[in-house]
Amino acid sequence: MTLEGKMLIGQQAVPGQRDAIHAINPATNAQLEPAYFGGTREDVEQACELAWAAFDGYRETALEARAGFLETIADEIEALGDALIERAVAESGLPQARIQGERGRTCNQLRLFAKTVRAGEWLDVRVDPAMPERQPMPRADLRQRHIALGPVAVFGASNFPLAFSVAGGDTASALAAGCPVIVKAHSAHPGTSELVGRAIQAAVKRCALPEGVFSLIFGSGREVGQALVANPRIKAAGFTGSRSGGLALWHIAQSRPEPIPFYAEMSSINPVFPLPAALEARGANLGEAFVGSLNMGAGQFCTNPGLVVAIKGPALDDFIAAARQAVETSASQTMLTPGIHQAYENGMQQLANSDKAREIARGRQGDGPNQCQTALFVTSASDFLGDESLQAEVFGSTSLVVECSDAEELQRVAERLEGQLTATLLMDDADLDAARALLPVLERKAGRILVNGWPTGVEVCDTMVHGGPFPATSDVRTTSVGTAAILRFLRPVCYQGLPDALLPEALKASNPLALKRLVDGQREA
Amino acid sequence: MTLEGKMLIGQQAVPGQRDAIHAINPATNAQLEPAYFGGTREDVEQACELAWAAFDGYRETALEARAGFLETIADEIEALGDALIERAVAESGLPQARIQGERGRTCNQLRLFAKTVRAGEWLDVRVDPAMPERQPMPRADLRQRHIALGPVAVFGASNFPLAFSVAGGDTASALAAGCPVIVKAHSAHPGTSELVGRAIQAAVKRCALPEGVFSLIFGSGREVGQALVANPRIKAAGFTGSRSGGLALWHIAQSRPEPIPFYAEMSSINPVFPLPAALEARGANLGEAFVGSLNMGAGQFCTNPGLVVAIKGPALDDFIAAARQAVETSASQTMLTPGIHQAYENGMQQLANSDKAREIARGRQGDGPNQCQTALFVTSASDFLGDESLQAEVFGSTSLVVECSDAEELQRVAERLEGQLTATLLMDDADLDAARALLPVLERKAGRILVNGWPTGVEVCDTMVHGGPFPATSDVRTTSVGTAAILRFLRPVCYQGLPDALLPEALKASNPLALKRLVDGQREA
Questions:
Q1: Model pLDDT, residue B506
Q2: What pLDDT is stored for residue A53 in this prediction?
Q3: Using one digit for the tens of pLDDT, what is the confidence trace for B12-34?
């Protein structure tokens, strides 16, 4: 498939009219063809009108048809073959094996949502049968189901050019919920976006769905992104990216005449707490393994362990010594974009210049452009508690160890943390009491709590929570990864006294979808 | 029990220091004793600190203990006996039978939430067992449950001094979720608030819960209300009231360093659509019954039918004629407060002065103060479509009939409506196609759709949705009435690789709470 450099609005390929966007191969700084000219407000408007026209039909598609659509998207993505892998590698600087794995995750994710759609639990069907004889007032027949919110705007993320971009988790969960999707492509990987967008476009056609179910727009965040979130046809949005970018769009979503849910996954430093007995037993091993997690994807994971909090002493010294050695032998890695690399250098330099943080080690310097040099810093708990800027995320493989004088100070550091995607305990049996004391704090701080694992590596499954208190996300009640992500794009509707002929399939008396309903307070078996 | 005129902060009774608040008996304009002196920011801070201290313990109470607490509150409210009824009647001007019924609803609501707490579905427990042999990567043991958001601020509503005030739906659902609650009492019924607050306070003590689980503060919205929503210890808020009041607090909630969910139930005109065959068959009956619904509670229900949309012609004329007669013979009713009465008079006068609305009938004028005079107006669809101000809620028993020239124009009126709590179809079998055409529009506009019923009268049950798109509420994803209201105060947390000894009860391998979990994608029977 030849890249055309065009937006996809419904079934059309539309050339943009604004400034040209060129992907840059971050490994070489070479500019990649073709140019993607940015869209206008009118393009956004057209995509939104198409999505709106598609909405009422798409949200009532049969579960099997909708599941089949998601599976068809996965098939079409796989059918892109090596062209997709090559383009994504060139645009992201990520290794081929990583991109291949991410394609697998993306397609599995779509197929998992297909399974979720078929199971129908997300409809949350409830029935309170009529009680015509009840005194003093009869009760009408009452039924509830969930319906889709409306067209959803999705902002592609730079760090997962497949799994959290055009056909990523936000898109998959919104489509699963019955919402048409308009993706604002990330300017770092327009070619990858076009390829995946064409796969979705083809799936829409193959499944004979209304064309407005999917559109893909290129352009600046300022013009296209803001117009998209402000458009009255858009009823929710999903975003993964920086705190400043997320908050700017979030403010637009809240300032509309009709405010809408805006799901921004923004910043997290993912604290790791090696507890005393674990440190004592295997401090050096943990220190080495920690750097392995820190270096994954050049530290460009949302769940990268940017903070270690532990009680100081010989065992922590062993951890730090092993980590130092691992950092010093860390090869440099290509970062996603020149902008991300520059921000990383600035963040690392700020720590290096701080009189509150002591540099322990740096990794090898790379030869090419945009190389991420691993770095490790240490600070004291009192300095950390006194300086909020030490909690700022440095997006890349830099981490900070906070040395606490005792368990009480460690607890205070935990209480002072901002909201996080994850919090990790490294523990042995003898640490159980310490872990029990920390757990309530971590539950309040993070969406996912790990024991003896590393936060990088997010399983796509029913139980995953990739979310957490602000500023990790803008909405603590949700997850952006895993099947529960579908709930973000649904709302309950109650139907009172409707004749069976007027009821939607999910609510008809004969229960044609064979759902396990909550009837009169009892869950059907 | 003698009223003391004091705030309840934990187990203490605390005198306020700001301006005195006196309840007014709206039937007589007489001032009621005692004075309730308003609280300060320091009082708010103290209540928030107590709530915070109580939070970790209260959110982990055993299901049975928490359910028992809710039932104890209901028992304590009933134990207040006639004193509560008399005070609520005096402060609200509502008839005794209505207040007695509302007490029943309030206590039933608490007991229904107790049942919901015991059933434990709200925990939404999910398990993805470990797959240590999986290739290329093993899967850790992953579990998910819902936990409480944190301390919740509740704003008592004027129009349900029991069922949506101190121990009303917001409080019951937040306590059920495991959130401590701080209520800002509505200044229209401080004595009722104190009585119910003391009942909750007594229940906290009887159940040996941490005192910060409940506090009750009096004072101005500007000082106390805003301080409450802005306090960093508060993690969500529930509000029922005016659009301007709701939006002002909502903006504070969104402008905090850490924005929080703010559930405001604000304004709705609850359109009723009498369809042609139903009008033809029983236009006069429907017109009379409509006024019965319009007059309920002096029109001071959130679900009051403030709009009728139908196709003009002789059948609609019959409806209007019968409604006119019913309005003209409507007795006046005492409104809740002088302020609400004044706003009603202004709103009705604005319609009377409008050159777009024609006055059809007014009800009887009352003798006493604060009397609500029922009123009915008619407008054309073209005028309605051209003037958004005709959609403004007039809180009280005034309604507007919109005459459409045909089904297509009726559809356009439906499409132009703002978000609503309810939408009602009055239909016969022959109206089925017309109803089918309207249903998708109404699903997008309202949280509850009724057929051949009246929107006033909100059943407290599993299926109820008392919610809807903005401006009916600030969060379309939720309901403030019914058991699903508990979901507003919860968030998911994922536990990865935790040893069984560290897992919360709900997630332990032996499933001690006997929950029907989602295990590996399958719901347990």
A1: 98
A2: 98
A3: 999 999 999 999 999 999 999 99
Nearest 5°: the CA angle B86, B457, B474 is 100
Averaged pLDDT, B1-6: 92
Q: Is B462 on the interface with A (CB under 8 A)?
A: yes
pLDDT in tens, B342-401: 999 999 999 999 999 999 999 999 899 999 999 999 999 999 999 999 999 999 999 999
Residue A259 contacts B, CB cutoff 8 Å? yes
Farthest-apart Cα atoms in chain B, separation: 82
Distance CA B83, CA B394 (A): 33
Chain A positions touching B429 (Cβ under 8 A) are 499
What gap in Å lies between CA B376 and CA B362, rounded to an integer? 6
Residue B494: its chain A contacts at CB < 8 A? Answer: 447-449, 463-465, 479
Q: Is B396 helix (H, G, I), strand (E, B) or coil?
A: coil
Residues of B in contact with A136 (CB under 8 A): 101
Could you tell me the domains of chain A? 7-120+138-266+477-488 (3.40.605.10), 271-451 (3.40.309.10)
CB contact under 8 A, A447 and B261: no
**Helices assigned H by DSSP within B231-337:** 243-255, 276-295, 314-328
| A178 Rama class: left (phi>0) / alpha (psi -120 to 50) / beta | left
Strand order in the sheet with B181-184: B12-14, B7-9, B214-217, B181-184, B152-155, B236-240, B262-265
Q: How far apart are CA B456 and CA B292, in angstroms?
A: 10
Q: Which residues contact B408 (CB under 8 A, 6 or more apart)?
A: none
C-beta of residue B360 within 8 angstroms of C-beta of residue B398: no
**Residue B83 clears pLDDT 90, i.e. is over it:** yes
User: Which tens digit of pLDDT belongs to each residue from A332-389?
Assistant: 999 999 999 999 999 999 999 999 999 999 999 989 999 999 999 999 999 999 999 9
- Over the stretch B268-311, which tens digit does the pLDDT of each residue have? 999 999 999 999 999 999 999 999 999 999 999 999 999 999 99
The residues of A assigned a catalytic role are: 265, 302
User: Does the bond joining A34 to the residue before it have cis omega, within 30 degrees of 0?
Assistant: yes
A323 within 8 A of A307, measured Cβ to Cβ: no
Q: What are phi and psi of B294, to 5 degrees?
A: -60, -35
Distance between CA atoms of residues A24 and B514, nearest Å: 55
Phi, psi of B517 (to 5 degrees): -85, 160
> What is the Cβ-side half-sphere exposure of residue B154, based on CA atoms within 13 angstroms?
33
Q: How far apart are CA A70 and CA A516, in angstroms?
A: 23
CA distance B116 to B96: 30
Residue B222's pLDDT is 84
Residues of B numbered 12-31 whose beta carbons fall under 8 angstroms of chain A's beta carbons: which are they? Answer: none
Q: pLDDT digits over A160-215, tens only?
A: 999 999 999 999 999 999 999 999 999 999 999 999 999 999 999 999 999 999 99
Q: What is the pLDDT of residues A456-501, one digit of tens each?
A: 989 999 999 999 999 999 999 999 999 999 999 999 999 999 999 9
What is residue A262's three-state secondary structure? strand
**pLDDT number for residue A407:** 98
Contact status of A514 with chain B (Cβ, < 8 Å): no
The CA distance from A59 to B322, in Å, is 40
Sign for the CA dihedral angle at A8, A12, A15, A19 comes to: negative
Rounded Cα distance between A352 and A349, Å, is: 5
CA dist B84 and B31 (Å) reads: 18
Pairing of β B142-148 and β B490-496: antiparallel
- According to DSSP, the β-strands at A152-155 and A518-519 are unpaired
Q: Which residue is listed with tokens 């606490």?
A: A404
Q: Among all chains, which residue has been given the structure tokens 């008592």?
A: B156
What is the sign of the dihedral through the CA atoms of A37, A41, A46 and A47? positive
Which residue on chain A is closest to B469 by alpha carbon? A258
